[in-house]
Write a structure and sequence with these properties.
Largest sheet: none
Number of helices: 20
Strand content: under 5%
Helix content: over 70%
CATH topology: Growth Hormone, Chain: A
Distance between the termini: 35 Å
CATH superfamily: MFS general substrate transporter like domains
Number of strands: 0
CATH class: Mainly Alpha
CATH architecture: Up-down Bundle
Radius of gyration: 21 Å
Order of helices and strands: HHHHHHHHHHHHHHHHHHHH
Number of domains: 1
Length: about 450
Amino acid sequence: MPTWIDNLLPRRALLQGDRRLLHLFLGRVFSSTGFSITLPFLSLYLHDTRGIPMTAIGGMFFISALAGASAQLFGGEWADRYGRKSILIIAQAGRGVIFAAMGAAALFHAPFGVFVALSCVSAFFGRLYEPPSGAMIADISTGDRRKEAFGILRIGGNIGFAVGPAIGGFLAALSYATLFFFSAVILSLSAVLLAFRIRESLPTDRRRGHEAGIGDDLPPRGVRGAIRSRMRHGLDLGSILATLRDHRFLRHSLACLLFFTVMGQLMATFSVFAVDWAGLSKLQLGWIYSLNGTMVTLLQYPVVRLLSPYRMTTSLVAGSVILSGGYVMMGFVDGMGPLALAMAVVTIGEIIATPAAMNLSASFATEETRGRYLGVYGLFTSFGWSLGPLIGGLLLDNAHGVAWIPWSVIGVLGTIAALGFLDLRRRLTPAMDRGDDPAHPGTKPASAPGEAS
């Protein structure tokens, strides 16, 4: 096989490395395909077919964030206690059931409140998946290989995102209910794949110790013992809040909240804007979303490798600025071609920044707290994803047809996120900022001479 393929796609990493990465990759392909089939079209169905205001639809996504946020916390704790695999399976199977219920709700024209409730449960299962997935990557990889592994997961997600919206655009022209039923089948296949193929990465002695309550009659010894003692009693909000006393991690999480609020415009805001304001057809909208997924599929791996010598905050700052610029462009262009170009710019920013965000989050944690840290990180990102449609819906409803107003406000939020990452940069050691020295307690304001910045 030509060597250039290995520079474009992670063939060797998937086929010659730890097979759990391959199975997580395939699970993410199925998962994202099922989810992205419906992603752009739920808002269109509720707004155009059912006449629900965009502000109310944005509110639905925001309320769903509350369920998703709790799932991030439980997913992280449960992954550290019971293992990664079982939580991954429960999350995918549960979401498949909920999407089937959404199909029935669309078929029988259920009230808007039913969709709100189902969206909350869907968000719970969807966000439950993320902490164990990220923790398993952190378990089986280190350093530059971990950076590549997080990028590979994004490739899997965006292969699905390249295919899903195009399928959704076709199915939406037939029936919205068909979208949800088709998604339910795909998500169920993902659960089956994970159940039969993936191996657990949490060490057996830790998992059995938690389940059996080993050492209940003994005082905990050291940090690890204290963590095991707390986890035997379930979700400990005190220990979760303790992660936020890591001020660098808190700054990172707040900047990520803003970044993913901007990213969240990809959901309801852009789909309604493109169809109702810019006049695109549903099929054209599906192709633009497929452009996003295809670009990530083809460019994510080479970009991760290209940026691996640099500090992760460099990627976060640059990605935030480019992402914001792409959204601002949307307020000044019209038609299929210019909107596709703006989406391409948005996608480049996404490709640069997103793997670094999760990788840096994992670097703040110790081996025993990876699930918890990634769960808290996921809490902030899930709020960002769901605040995005709420803010975008308010802006669209109150912009009085002036397209540059909502997208310029979104651009300002992205710029603030970039400034937050820039402030974080000076508080991290260069080694930790590259993922070479996770959970290092020291800080240095700047890199040494001659180091990549």
